[in-house]
């Protein structure tokens, strides 16, 4: 069975009352179409990744763009043989992407965006003219990034601004920033401009949009981490065959073993592989039992 997956966002001012009404409306629409996924709502807009059977997802998207606030939505589409989510969750938050910069968001859909082919052409100018900066977290950049990109050692997006303050970017080069689907860069570019950077551009639609244009991977090395059960996708937008989610911390896992408690197959991340009990436990429950057994010795 094939499932369709759509990622999308839109920055648009919404009243608190409208946010509540949208939550109820989208929950009703989602349940009617069997939608699974995560939808974030705030007074600054919407951010979501959802999945369903293709016809059901198409019907949901049609209903969504019929709403006046989301008439010009664009979707980053992909497919999977298994669901990317187990249920539909709709949350109301202060921001639709956690930057700890409430109130700072774009007022138009185009602000120094580069289409994938334009981005690729600039990359080919080389490090003498451009500096490429990844705005994602360390566990994301570890499994894939653009060749030569600066990968800040951050665990959450809200740390990005502090990294730039402590590691200023060259003012004499074109700064290119990117993320998974584009939403983090929408805030990051405004924050960089507030810090005095003028020659900054963002990859329109992020890595996912770049993969759609360059299915051979282009200048991207590795896979793109996702916040769903696919863990990551390759350059052809197919679910990762290399990574699973570490059961102990949620980072991408590649270290395989036979569980020391239940003897089943397990996989953890490199960091957890070096931790007592976690490194040989396929679940948190098995790690608990291994600790209990060790205490009896």
UniProtKB/TrEMBL annotation:
EC number(s) reported in the record: 1.14.-.-
A Gene Ontology biological process term: tRNA modification
UniProt domain Rhodanese: residue ranges: 126-219
Family: Belongs to the TrhO family.
Function: Catalyzes oxygen-dependent 5-hydroxyuridine (ho5U) modification at position 34 in tRNAs.
PANTHER family given in the database record: THIOSULFATE SULFURTRANSFERASE/RHODANESE-LIKE DOMAIN-CONTAINING PROTEIN 2, THIOSULFATE SULFURTRANSFERASE_RHODANESE-LIKE DOMAIN-CONTAINING PROTEIN 2
Protein name, UniProt field: tRNA uridine(34) hydroxylase
Organism of this sequence: Armatimonas rosea
């Amino acid at each position: 069975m094939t499932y369709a997956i759509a990622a999308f966002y839109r920055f648009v001012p919404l009243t608190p009352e409208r946010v509540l009404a949208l939550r109820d409306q989208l929950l009703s629409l989602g349940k009617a179409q069997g939608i699974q996924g995560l939808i974030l709502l705030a007074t600054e807009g919407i951010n979501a990744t959802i999945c369903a059977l293709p016809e059901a997802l198409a019907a949901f998207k049609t209903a969504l763009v019929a709403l006046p606030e989301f008439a010009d939505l664009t979707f980053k589409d992909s497919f999977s043989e298994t669901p990317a989510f187990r249920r539909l969750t709709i949350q109301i938050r202060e921001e639709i992407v956690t930057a700890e910069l409430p109130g700072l968001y774009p007022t138009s859909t185009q602000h120094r965006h580069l289409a994938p082919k334009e981005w690729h052409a600039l990359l080919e100018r080389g490090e003498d003219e451009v500096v490429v900066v990844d705005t994602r977290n360390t566990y994301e950049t570890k499994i894939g990034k653009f060749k030569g990109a600066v990968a800040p050692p951050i665990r959450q997006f809200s740390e990005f601004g502090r990294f730039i303050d402590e590691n200023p970017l060259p003012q004499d080069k074109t700064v290119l920033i990117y993320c998974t689907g584009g939403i983090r860069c929408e805030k990051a570019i405004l924050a960089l401009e507030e810090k005095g950077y003028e020659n900054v551009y963002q990859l329109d639609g992020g890595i996912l949009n770049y993969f759609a244009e360059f299915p051979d991977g282009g200048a991207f090395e590795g896979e793109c981490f996702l916040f769903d059960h696919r863990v990551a996708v390759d350059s052809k937008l197919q679910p990762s065959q290399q990574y699973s989610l570490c059961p102990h911390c949620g980072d991408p896992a590649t270290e395989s073993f036979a569980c020391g408690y239940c003897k089943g197959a397990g996989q953890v991340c490199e960091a957890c592989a070096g931790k007592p009990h976690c490194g040989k436990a396929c679940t948190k429950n098995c790690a608990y039992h291994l600790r209990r057994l060790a205490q009896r010795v």
